[in-house]
Structure formats: structure tokens, C-alpha cells
Amino acid sequence: MKLSIIIPVYNxxxxxxxxxxxxxxxxxxxxxxxxxxxxxxxxxxxxxxRWALKSEKISVIHKKNGGLSDARNAGIDVARGKYIxxxxxDDYIGEHTFAxxxxxxxxxxxxxILEYPAQLFYGSPNHHELAFPEETVYNNMxxxxxxxRAYQHTYAWNKIYKKELFDEVRFPTGVVFEDIYTLYCLxxxxxxxxxxxxxxxxxxxxxxxxxxxADNSAMRMLLHxxxxxxxxxxRRDKDFQAYYMQVINIQxxxxxxxxxVPILPDIHMNPKYFxxxxxLKSIALNILGxxxxxxxxRLFHNVWRNH
Length: 307
Fold this sequence. Notes:
- By secondary structure, this protein is α/β, with parallel strands linked by helices.
- The protein has two domains: about 5-210, Spore Coat Polysaccharide Biosynthesis Protein SpsA, Chain A (Alpha-Beta Complex), CATH 3.90.550.10; about 215-305, no CATH class.
- It contains eleven helices and twelve strands.
- The chain has helices spanning about 15-25, 45-55, 70-80, 100-105, 140-145, 180-190, 210-215, 215-230, 240-260, 275-290, 290-305, and strands spanning about 5-10, 30-35, 60, 85, 90-95, 115, 120, 130, 135-140, 160, 195, 200-205.
- An eight-stranded mixed β-sheet has the order 3-2-1-4-10-6-11-9, sandwiched between helices.
- The longest helix is centred in the last third of the chain and has 21 residues, at about 240-260.
- The chain is globular and about 65 Å long.
- The N and C termini lie far apart (about 60 Å).
């Protein structure tokens, strides 16, 4: 029941050793570590090669720069484990993470995707914890996505996947926020998803990362991912509407940044599902529609900023 750990590497010589050390120091040994040098211009290729000489568990792929998705895909292509996980090379995992996580999978082999806790934006004022107070098992994708609010933590890392889920799925290249679309595709193939409160992934804040520097095109792409998911479901219950209200905020941001006609479809909201500002927003949406709501919100923001 080997675990293939894939680490894409690009221009991270300051953090790479810490990332790799967090893997090799685990009290879990049934793994292979695949370092994918994505044409890194710094000393990362040499660092990767030195680690590969230290352990037969570690292998290196040197490839032409193709971006994060392409690097992950290269690792998937050569992975030999029954399970796959990803670590970004400027992050690391906590001690005693893989042993309890893989023990859970050994005891519950029917689980297709297992998610474990994370420290988010570690090292920044926005640092907060993603925790799962109790073990939860979801028997279908929509329950995990909507009831479990997985859309709020659509990270490729902090999850263990059955490798077979990737048989016809790869990360899309040339796009940003690729984790959202890919995770949704994997969930459509998964029968059982679980969350546990063991282990920890440290997602370290990167001021140059896409989350911190998202521009118009990045936000537009994020919106497109979510709209595709909304168009793919017939759900209109409370959990769906909570998701839709979150996507409205992205649509409003894109409208303010670009002025483009909103692409989010109008869906009737039930104000009884919401409180406070969200309740007022749901009523306004029902009366005005998404296009007029975007215009009204932009006007309000302009007045507020100039006040």
C-alpha cells in the first residue's frame, strides 16, 4: 500500500530542504518521494539530485518548465504507489502525519480520498487552522462538496488519493486555481470521501503566490471554475445556496475589476436560509437579479471609498 509523494519544485532553494526533510523524517516508511524539477533556474536541481543520492525512496524528474500543473502531472505519470499525495515545495508537513493518515486508509480501504488538517497561510497575519473535529465519512461527492463545504478548502495537498482516480484526470495546464476544477473532477469519480483530525499540512504564506496576487484574469478563471460546478448540479437546498452566495462574492469582485457582464446564472434564493447581510443580499438578488446586484454593489463601494 505504497504512498507516492509528489513535490513539484521551482525556484524554492530557500525552502526545499525543509520540505523534503519533513517527509524523510516521518515515522512512516512505505513511500516513494518524487521530486519534479520544473526547469528551476536556481540551485534546486542540484538539491534534488543530492537528496536522491541519499535514499532509494527518492527519485528526481528534470523537465522543461511547464508550470505547477504540468509538474504534478509528470509526477503522476511515473507514480508507482496505490495512493498519491502532493506537497508544494515551499510548504511542509508536520511530524507524525503520514503514519496515522495511512493507518486510517489501511483500516478503511473503501475510502477514495482522505483529507487531513492544515495550518493555512502559516507565517502571516491571516494564519488560521483547517481542522476536522471528528472523523466524517461522505458517501457521495455532493455531500462532501456542499454539506462538508469542501469548496472552502479545495487544495490539492492535505489529501490522500487513490491513484486510480487519476486514470483519466490530470491537472489542467496554463490555468490558475487549477486545484478547484481538478478536485471536483476527482470527486465525481470517488465513491467515498473522509476527513480525519490527525496529521497536519503547513501551507506557508507566499506573498508572490497566486492567492496573494490574483489579478483580473486569475479571478475570472476562478469564477469560471465555480460557475461550471454550479451548472453541473441540480441541487437548490440550503447547502447549495450557501455555496452560491459565496460564488456571488467572486462574481461581484470580477465585475468590479473588469466590468464584464456577469456569467453567474440567476438562481432564486430562500432568504430563510440566511441571516444578517446574507439575508438582505439574498432578498436583493431575488428582486434585482445578479447583473443589477453587481452594479448596485459597485456603486455602493465607490460611494463608500470616496466618502
